[in-house]
Amino acid sequence: MFTGIVEELGSIRSSREQGDGRRIQINAIDIVGDISIGDSISVNGCCLTVVAYENKDPDSWFAADVVPESLSLTTLGDLKEKDPVNLERSMPADGRFGGHVVQGHVDAISEVREILTHPDGSQRLTFQIPKDIVGQIVRKGSVALDGVSLTVASVNQNAETFDIAVIPHTLEVTTLGQKTTGDQVNVEADLFARYVAGVIANSSYTFDKGES
Q1: What share of the chain is helix, strand, coil (3-state, %, to 5)?
Q2: How far apart are CA 178 and CA 57, in angstroms?
Q3: Model-level pTM greater than 0.85?
Q4: CB-count burial class (<10 Å; 0-12, 13-18, 19+) for 19
Q5: How far apart, in whole angstroms, are the C-alpha atoms of residue 135 and residue 196?
Q6: Which of 103, 129, 112, 132 is nearest to 179 (CA)?
Q7: Which one-letter DSSP state was computed for residue 43?
């Protein structure tokens, strides 16, 4: 489990095909000092397993394998050398909970529709609502974008978009500050919103089946 509080902004060292999957190596410093083979790391919101690493400052890195299923549902397959990535280690049992419950299971890919920069340096970003999570993005609810825990500022159901407001600090320490219109992000809906949507869907199915 993760919290959506990014620990470090890493960068892609290499990305190469491995059968029908990929192995990616990621340059990182802070988190590599406290990881082991088999640990879970959130990479742009995707939970990946550490399969190799080297802790030699300043040339520290770790590697993870990305299976075809993950490549089809996330933006990981599009990452190129030197691309920045948000990194977070899984939360320890006695860790401080700073964001919201993030599983590292990406629901869909969204696209940046509009970026508005305010005089204070903050930004309001507008994203497309992916069809797979319609109804799970709600105003003042939580959402993880590329692994960053954020609060939904508004939802426009007619335009099928939602907005988030991002403070300058978050723009500086995550990939959100480097986004431009048309860029894609990994989206994970709030865990509780997902459960509620599932309950409603199952209840409707049971009711309809009973009435038939």
Answers
A1: 20, 40, 35
A2: 26
A3: yes
A4: exposed
A5: 10
A6: 112
A7: E
pLDDT > 90 fraction of the chain, expressed in percent and rounded: 75
Kindly list the distances between the CA atom of residue 75 and the CA atoms of 30, 64, 79, 110, 124, in Å, as whole numbers in the listed order: 24, 15, 7, 10, 22
- Asked whether residue 191 carries a pLDDT value surpassing 90, the answer given is no
> How high is the pLDDT of residue 211?
47
| Residue 98 predicted with pLDDT over 70 | no
CB contact at 8 A, 70 and 46: yes
- The predicted-structure confidence for 134-145, as pLDDT tens digits, reads as follows 889 989 999 999
Please tell me whether the peptide bond between 68 and the residue prior to it is cis, using omega within 30 degrees of 0: no
Paired with 190 in beta bridges are none
Contact present, 110 and 188 (Cβ < 8 Å): no
Q: Which stretches within 118-190 are classed as H helix? A: 168-173
Task: Look at the block and give the residue holding tokens 């959402």.
Answer: 143
Tokens of 168: 């300058």
Q: Which amino acid, one-letter code, is at 89?
A: R
Q: In the numeric block, which tokens belong to residue 131?
A: 């069809």
Q: What are the strands, taking DSSP E only, across 90-203?
A: 108-117, 123-128, 142-145, 148-156, 161-166, 184-189
User: In the chain, what are the domains?
Assistant: 8-89 (2.40.30.20), 108-198 (2.40.30.20)
pLDDT at 207 over 60: no
CB of 138 closer than 8 Å to CB of 154: no
